[in-house]
Here is the input.
Amino acid sequence: MSTPLRLLSRIRFRLLAFNALLVFLPAGGMLFLDTYEKQLLSDQERSMVEQGRVLAAALSGRGALRADDVTHTLIQLRQRSGTRIRVVRGDHALLADSSQLGPRREASIEEDSPAANAFETWLYRAGSLPIRLYRKWLVPPRPPHESADVYASGQPIDGREVRAALAGRYGAATRISSGGQRSVTLYSAIPIRNDGAVVGAVLISQSTYRILQALYEVRAGVFRVFLASLAAAIVLSLLVSHTIARPLVRLRNQAGAMIDRRGRLRGRFEAPKRRDEIGDLARTLELLRRRLEDHIVDVESFAGDVSHEFRNPLASIRTAADVLLEVESDEERKHFVEIVQREVARMERMLSAVREIGRLDARSEVEDGEPVELSNLLQGIVEAHRLRGGEPAGIEASAEPLWVFGSPERLAQAFANVLDNAASFSRPGSPVEIDLVRRRSKAVVRVLDRGPGIPEAHRERIFDRFFSYRAKADPAHPHDGLGLAIVKAIIENAGGSIRASDRIGGGACFEIRLPLHADRNSLTQ
Here is the structure.
């Protein structure tokens, strides 16, 4: 993986990108301040028009406009806003100008005031750079505004908005403010009528300087909050990534040092005290390591047990083969050949059982499970046992069918092994008893015999591989001690359990528990 892609895949970078994105989304609202600006400009123009209409209504119907009359009316209206009002006669001559009637309520904002300098700060320039680039490259170009100097002192009032008003229409214009201000001036002209004829116009103008300075302050404030949020996002991302990425790197290093070059387990996962998901992961990995270690130890022990168990028949075969070279009697030679054949058959049984256990432990055989009704399965096993000449066995089953999920062949093999084992220990004429009951969400099968029972010291060991205990063992038919080990592996692979205990009144009891199949049984009981 290339370095850029590897960097992008890091958790630290992802956390930082996510947190920064959450910060950039609100900051993108700065672009929508244009809508707010348009609304303010619209409100400003509406206010100007209302003032102009009031003055135009006051001057209408008085005949020809006179300068002293117009000035007196302006004084009576007590104009105290930042709006400049001029009254123009029909020949474009200026009759009155509110700027010449004394100071207005709001003093002019000087260029060196804090609000005026907001646009010049580095903070504002840095924050508005994306907006300026957006307007420069993405917004269609607009025709430039003319300068407000068209109404310089001593010149006739002959702007296009005044001409529109003298023609009887509402006139409006936008011009760049004079005096070096970073703003525009809005102009509105309303006609003054006398007996239906237009005798003059009211020209109202007001700079957008205050609005723009307020927007500059808002943008600068938003950008300050953005920078503070971005710094907090970076710090939090580094802190969170440190608490996430660093433990993961430590787990990766521990996993890399877990196995040496010879494939042996050498290390361990340090289980941290933290209770979050990473702590759970570390503890789960350590549990997995311990299980793997136990499995390796079990496999090594199994290999040693197999080697040990094969040593006895091999020794017998070697001894019989050496003696065969020396004996001369046909009867003795036949005896030693029988020993070799018996030991070879024993080794074949052991190899088959070992292969079976290996498959069950590794689950190398892919077996399709299916719902299995235990009562019918046990009936078939008992009938097969009877046909082989075994002692009769009785079954006492629950009235309701009990379904479990598993391989029918494997379950039949397990129950048959338990039945054969119980029958081999039972006294002659004493049948093996099997009962099947339901206990909550489990199907319980008990196989009971009337044999000598199981010594307490051997109850757990009888399921170990190559362990066999019989008070009266038959040397001609030795047991390899793998039958119950196979049963345990099959039952556990099906999600169940098996245990052995003494039967009341003498004998042994093998209890097998299997989970009921939810789709075939009601598990509400």
Notes: The longest strand covers residues 184-194. The mean pLDDT is 77. The CA atoms of residues 413 and 487 lie 8 Å apart.
